[in-house]
Amino acid sequence: MEGTPSLTKQLQSFSGGDREIAETVLREVLPRLHQIAIRELRRERYIAPLSPTELINEVWLRSLRKGGWQISSRDHFYAIAALAMRRVLVDFARQRLAQRRG
Predict the structure, then answer these.
(1) Residue 95 to residue 24: CA distance in whole angstroms
(2) Using an 8 Å Cβ cutoff, are 21 and 10 in contact?
(3) d(Cα 9, Cα 1) in Å, to the nearest integer?
(4) What is the pTM of this model?
(5) How far apart are the first and last CA of the chain?
(6) Do 68 and 57 contact (CB within 8 A), yes or no?
(7) How far apart are CA 14 and CA 17, in angstroms?
């Protein structure tokens, strides 16, 4: 395990554009992202049409995959991910309200 870089280093490498490390990083952060997704979904005033896994996938597809996050630490990564989840949920709420208005 001595040769394995820390999660923070892996996250910084991934956000810098290293796609080779994506699977390793995702495997490492997925349990915590799942907990954050459950928390964010519970905060929703209305029932969101997403499961925690779907929310994580939306965040992955919308922003994480593109890269460009300036990650300074593990906690910083999780904070950014929580904000991204919140934005996804807000977007879904806006779409729902727009459909109701016609």
Answers:
(1) 34
(2) yes
(3) 14
(4) 0.80
(5) 57
(6) no
(7) 5
